[in-house]
Amino acid sequence: MTQDEHFMHLALEEAAKAAAIGEIPVGAVVVRHGEVVAAAHNRRETGKNALAHAECLAIEEACRVRGGWRLWDCELYVTMEPCPMCAGAIINSRIRRVIYAVPDAKAGCCGSVTDLFSLPFNHRPEVTAGVCADECAALVQDFFTRLREELKTRPRWKKPVPETAAQPKACAAPKEKKHTAEQGFSAADQAEGSSAAAPKQEETP
Ligand SMILES: [Zn+2]
Q1: Sheet of 27-32, strands arranged across
Q2: Residues at Cβ < 5 Å from ligand 1 ion
Q3: Distance from Cα 131 to the centre of ligand 1, integer Å
């Protein structure tokens, strides 16, 4: 087993802790000179905190242990490709090298969605991808398979039926047209990254 595989297994153990408490299994370990400085797992749901990603928590702990924010002689092992927030934290903490297992097609910022580390920021960590990828992917897959099974057994939420009678059909046609137009506008608006059309109308006195 290589040193990278050894530390990735420790990150995997952290990811398994996340899965055990119902969190998406992501684990991270900060290593300095061959020794673990900090280890953490995703706690976004249990901590009710959008910032509680494994990497950010591990970096925070490493800064505390090291007594400073410059982690230039540290390496970060993480089971999933870092998101924009965590890639930003990696840049800001000057972590020397990032080692991750599986890519994240929806949020990964080491090449999947974008590659933040290729942009001209003031720090560019070295990146190694695919270490223990099969094991980490299996953990994530297993988590979502179990979650889907669990969701099947939960009672489904049903949209409440309004008590008022349905509108006469004569009125339905123009209303439907207007609705379609609004939907079209809203979709186009969202595609441009702005969804402020409806709130603006409400704010108008
Ligand atoms: Zn993240």
Answers
A1: 35-41, 27-32, 74-80, 97-102, 126-129
A2: 53, 83, 85-86
A3: 18
